[in-house]
Write a structure and sequence with these properties.
CATH class of the largest domain: Alpha Beta
Strand order of the largest sheet: 2-3-4-5-1-8-12-9
Structural class: alpha+beta
CATH architecture of the largest domain: 2-Layer Sandwich
Helix content: 40-55%
Order of helices and strands: HEHHEHEEEHEEEHHEEEEHHHEHHHEH
Radius of gyration: 22 Å
Strand content: 15-25%
Number of helices: 14
CATH superfamily of the largest domain: Glutamine synthetase/guanido kinase, catalytic domain
CATH topology of the largest domain: Creatine Kinase, Chain A, domain 2
Largest sheet: 8 strands, antiparallel
Number of strands: 14
Number of domains: 2
């Protein structure tokens, strides 16, 4: 079971080579007609739904060979914690089951907040590509399944944001420039006016951690799938340009501040003995900024991004196969980052930095 979850995790945290957009993804929510939502079903109904869906899935070409099944009831406590984080599970039950494709970054989640959630997260490509993959998968199943649909409101879902098209899409953005220039709040207000939202990936005690944000739709009502995707892609492109401009201005107008911040972050990571998740995430974010602004050299920045998003207690416990106290997790986290950053990340000489610009 753990090996299957490991592969799924590696798919989800794989990062793009772009300097701002870390990944893109989409979800498609569906429910079977004739059944209540999962939260209102009894055991026999959930088993019937699961059997119906499993039979339909296995009619897809190559399904048995290309897809891996993970049953919630067969997972340990640590594996469940990791699956919740990877798949964004909200209210899993004993009948919750996840299938994921070995190569195509696609998941099918049964019995969470809806009967079915098709999900994809990609490190490359466009949101249209993500949505098309999910729509093609749903269309292939549509001949075998009867999805709940209302002519006036569209696909019926338990979550209001998923009613209508049943589609949600997002881009995960790394925005240290906008954060340091205190421009994120302006973007939040701008996006709110067009039913989009910008939410931190990690947030503790009202503090954003790691400068990572999800740009996503607030609702699936009132527009078509193509309109929704076009709108998010358009705003994503504008935010990427704004972030790159913010970084450029930081380096040109506050170069000492940027060098000092990057130097302190790298120094701590290369010499630390223990690190909390929040502190580690924040420090790696600043080091990634240093790499992207040519202050630091790193041959494989995507490898650092993979490590960056694998620092949670759930991940460390699952992959050390040990129950870790917060103090023990801090020690393991520090050891991983210290070893990696000491070997792979170095300062760029002033001459090389000027040439790179």
């Amino acid at each position: 079971m753990l090996e299957g979850i490991r592969l799924l995790w590696q798919q989800q945290v794989r990062s793009s080579k772009q300097t701002v957009c870390v990944s893109k993804g989409a979800c498609l929510y569906r429910n079977l007609a004739g059944y209540p939502f999962t939260s209102h079903t009894h055991l026999q109904q959930r088993l019937e739904i699961l059997d119906t869906l499993r039979a339909a899935f296995h009619k897809l070409p190559g399904f048995s060979k290309d897809w891996v099944e993970l049953a919630w009831k067969d997972c340990s406590h640590d594996e469940r914690a990791l699956l919740k984080k990877i798949c964004g599970l909200q209210v899993p039950c004993e009948e919750t089951t996840i299938w994921y494709h070995k190569k195509h970054f696609t998941q099918i989640i049964v019995h969470d907040i809806n009967h079915i959630r098709f999900r994809i997260t990609r490190p490359d490509g466009t949101l249209k590509h993500c949505a098309d993959q999910l729509m093609n998968l749903e269309s292939a199943l549509d001949t075998h399944l009867d999805f709940a649909f209302d002519p006036q409101i569209g696909y019926v879902n338990s979550a209001p944001f998923a009613t209508g098209t049943g589609l949600s899409a997002w881009a995960l953005l790394h925005l240290p420039g906008l954060c340091l220039r205190q421009q994120v709040a302006d973007w939040v207000q701008t996006l709110k006016k067009i039913n989009l939202c910008l939410t931190p990936m990690d947030m503790t005690q009202s503090k954003v951690v790691g400068h990572l944000f999800y740009l996503a739709n607030d609702s699936g009502l009132g527009c078509s799938e193509s309109q929704l995707i076009t709108q998010i892609e358009s705003m994503c492109a504008k935010m990427v340009m704004d972030e790159l401009q913010a970084r450029k201005e930081l380096v040109s107008k506050r170069s000492v501040f940027v060098k000092d911040s990057v130097g302190r972050a790298l120094g701590l990571l290369q010499n630390c003995c223990e690190l909390s998740y929040d502190e580690a995430t924040e420090l790696v974010s600043v080091v990634v900024l240093g790499i992207h602004t040519n202050l630091l050299s790193h041959q494989h920045p995507t490898a650092l991004k993979l490590l960056w998003r694998s620092l949670s207690n759930e991940y460390l416990e699952a992959f050390t196969q040990k129950q870790l106290t917060p103090e023990q997790a801090s020690l393991v986290r520090a050891q991983l980052l210290k070893s990696y950053c000491s070997k792979n990340i170095h300062w760029v000489s002033e001459k090389k930095a000027r040439h790179a610009k």
